[in-house]
């Protein structure tokens, strides 16, 4: 029987903390249109700074991502596939910040933090986590932890807003949303769409195939070590994601 994919293992082995990270009361209130403009604006301000920290993390990964010297190796290199993904991620992050700014202007939202004291604990955790991105020296797949951090945060974000979208379907939309409709008309559809899901799944596939290839090359003995490394990074992201949703 084929061994379980690493990303599937992470999702299934940590189902309870994953649910806490993706099914918060903040998301339920968003689905019902009950978040005020001030509450949403402050959260979006934190999310903008998360984007900035994420961009820095990608830069750190790019600084140590080795690419094949041989042209023949390019097509099958997991490093090249990861490079393609993070390059697209950079473009997406810049586009997302513009979307925040434009939508905030449309709905009268203020998305600047009034002070650093307004930073969510989750944002602070992500800033530390993203700033710590570095190669795992002398280990198989030195970029594994970085890729897991990126996959985990993207997957949590996607599933959180897909959950909110499902909850939204249960409550309907009577047009009197506290935020003027910004979340249910603009943000939730943007953060739960199929293009985003495919983008996240691509990174998961890159990770799973790279791990499977290393096991094929080096034997089953390397599996446990890669799982331990991945689980440590996964845990850090779940803690940060849970703390990223404001308490209501």
Structure in a nutshell:
The protein is mostly helical and 248 residues long. The chain has a single domain, classed as Heme Oxygenase, Chain A. It contains 11 helices and no strands.
Tell me what you see in this structure.
- The mean pLDDT is 95.
- It is built from eleven helices and no strands.
- 35% of the residues are buried.
- The chain is mainly α.
- The protein has a single domain, classed as Heme Oxygenase, Chain A, CATH 1.20.910.10.
Sequence-ordered SSE layout with sheet pairings:
Layout: H1 6-13, H2 15-22, H3 25-31, H4 37-64, H5 71-74, H6 78-107, H7 121-131, H8 144-171, H9 182-191, H10 194-218, H11 223-244
Protein name: Thiaminase-2/PQQC domain-containing protein
Organism: Stachybotrys chartarum (strain CBS 109288 / IBT 7711)
Tell me the strand percentage band: under 5%
How many strands appear in the DSSP assignment?
0
Q: In one word, what is the shape?
A: elongated
CATH class: Mainly Alpha
Cα-based radius of gyration, to the nearest Å? 19 Å
Please provide the ordered H/E string of secondary-structure elements.
HHHHHHHHHHH
Uncertain regions spanning at least 5 consecutive residues: none
**What structural category arises from helix and sheet content?**
mainly alpha
Number of helices: 11
Number of separate structural domains: 1
CATH topology: Heme Oxygenase, Chain A
The CATH architecture would be Up-down Bundle
Distance between the termini: 46 Å
> Helix share of residues?
over 70%
- Biggest pleated-sheet summary: none
Full CATH superfamily name: Heme oxygenase-like
Mean pLDDT: 95
